[in-house]
Design brief:
Blueprint: E1 27-34, E2 40-44, E3 51-56, E4 66-69, H1 77-81, E5 95-99, E6 110-123, E7 126-127, E8 130-135, H2 152-164, E9 177-183, H3 185-203
Parallel strand pairs: 5-8
Antiparallel strand pairs: 1-4, 1-6, 2-3, 4-5, 6-7, 6-8, 6-9
Amino acid sequence: MNFPDPFFRWRPHPWHGLDAGENAPEVVSAFIEITSFDAIKYEVDKLTGYMRVDRPQRSSSMPPSLYGFIPRTYCGERIGKLSPHTDKGDSDPLDICVLSERPIDRAEVILNARVIGGLHMIDQDEADDKIISVLDNDTYYEGVNDVSDLPPVLIERLSHYFNTYKLVPGKDNSKSIFVDRVMNREEAFEVVKASMADYQDMFGE
């Protein structure tokens, strides 16, 4: 049987079978793994492409935005070179947070996200950057072009979440897992481009 392009007979792998977006790094595709309603850490299984339960969150903090990754990105050597704290990425696809005015309560969706900045994060001596974006066709955010255009409390919530989402009671991990700084839009563009190049080095076309 002949399948018309771009129909897939089998489900494409969310990491490798989708693309980063025609207008990357300004507007990227995002595959959403977690919503603001999830107290469970879900993530795409790298081998199968299906969603896997990673762990229940130990803290009571809820994700302040949609959370997922940009397909066909990889945090490797180039990502490491952008960090003042390490020389290596975390060997995962590049993470992305997506702000939306209307609540989106389901994961495993693909959307277009407009990049406006990011958080430079270190996790166990590896760069684990989080891109900050807004839903591309969300008119509520149409005047937001950089993280500096957002209310500071939104950035505080994102930073607090990632500073604490791996917190284990009785254990201080603040020196091994921390948000180092907030990146503006241009810096975030460089991170996206570096992760796309790292993907090409690692996996090719």
